[in-house]
Protein: Probable 2-(5''-triphosphoribosyl)-3'-dephosphocoenzyme-A synthase
Organism: Pseudomonas sivasensis
Amino acid sequence: MRALKLHELSLADRLADMAVDALIDEADLSPKPALVDRRGNGAHSDLHLGLMHASALSLWPMFKEMAEAAIEIGEVGLPLREALGRIGREGEQAMLTTTQGVNTHRGAIWALGLLTAAAALEPRAVTLNAARLALLNDRYAPQPLSHGAQVAQRYGARGAREEAQLGFPSVMQRGLPQLHKSRRQNAGEQNARLDALLAIMTDLADTCVLYRAGLEGLHAMQRGAQAVLDAGGSASLAGRRQLHELDHQLLALNASPGGAADLLAACLFIDRLDGAL
Ligand SMILES: CC(C)(COP(=O)(O)OP(=O)(O)OC[C@H]1O[C@@H](n2cnc3c(N)ncnc32)[C@H](O[C@H]2O[C@H](COP(=O)(O)OP(=O)(O)OP(=O)(O)O)[C@@H](O)[C@H]2O)[C@@H]1O)[C@@H](O)C(=O)NCCC(=O)NCCS
Ligand SMILES: Nc1ncnc2[nH]cnc12
């Protein structure tokens, strides 16, 4: 039998591979504060690493379909936005079937879905086109009283929607520059990725943290992440001590930065895409 050559994969196949790889790399990265990783389930009683992997793999057909819709429709506009909304909702159902009802990757479906579609349209304008798509109003989107919506009412934090509408500032201005900086400093790839996650955490209005632990949790996350970076980052002994301290603090507050984790996956996706151009 002839071996499958990677370059024979379609653009949509390759983008779906990159999105799933980014989710699996995020899940495997350890030690992440209060998140599911190779050490354990962090602040989650209903999640574990195997479930995160299964969830990520279940989303491959959805990412492929999103990329194909973008290629077929060919431009940013309401038809593509509403196609992505429909495909995203079906993907969410596939995820919930796989995880038996546990929300593993809702935020990632949103962020990586927009980025995958934008990459299929024009790989050199990914965050710009993702933001333009996020600004369009999907007329068929249900308006559930999600955790994000409840937190928006209570604290005025706008979370995942705004992050995408602004072109992913936490990724482009914090995560990616830190990833590159830590790599330049020879921190090692895993430490560079941890530093990128921490950089995202320093300023994010993570609605998962706000919902579970309020402003106290959010401030603990932001300050603790900054303290690790100030101490020298994950590759330094002082930074590692701060990282363990942050893990303990967030676990005590039951504060899981799931939004930051999704944005790290978005950061790794864009990094991979840049490398492929
Ligand atoms: C437009 C949507 C993004 C909906 O947003 P909204 O804020 O209304 O809804 P949420 O359901 O709260 O989902 C937002 C998820 O985004 C992640 N997130 C949080 N803060 C940010 C941020 N500042 N920037 C970016 N991303 C952020 C986060 O996802 C992760 O957390 C999930 C677990 O959360 P939760 O269920 O609250 O978990 P627990 O506390 O553990 O629950 P319990 O144990 O207490 O039960 C996990 O999945 C991570 O992924 C937020 O959860 C968009 O989602 C939407 O409209 N979707 C509909 C389908 C659609 O149109 N898709 C579009 C395809 S392009
Ligand atoms: N590693 C992780 N742990 C908990 N929630 C998450 N949401 C996305 N990635 C996650």
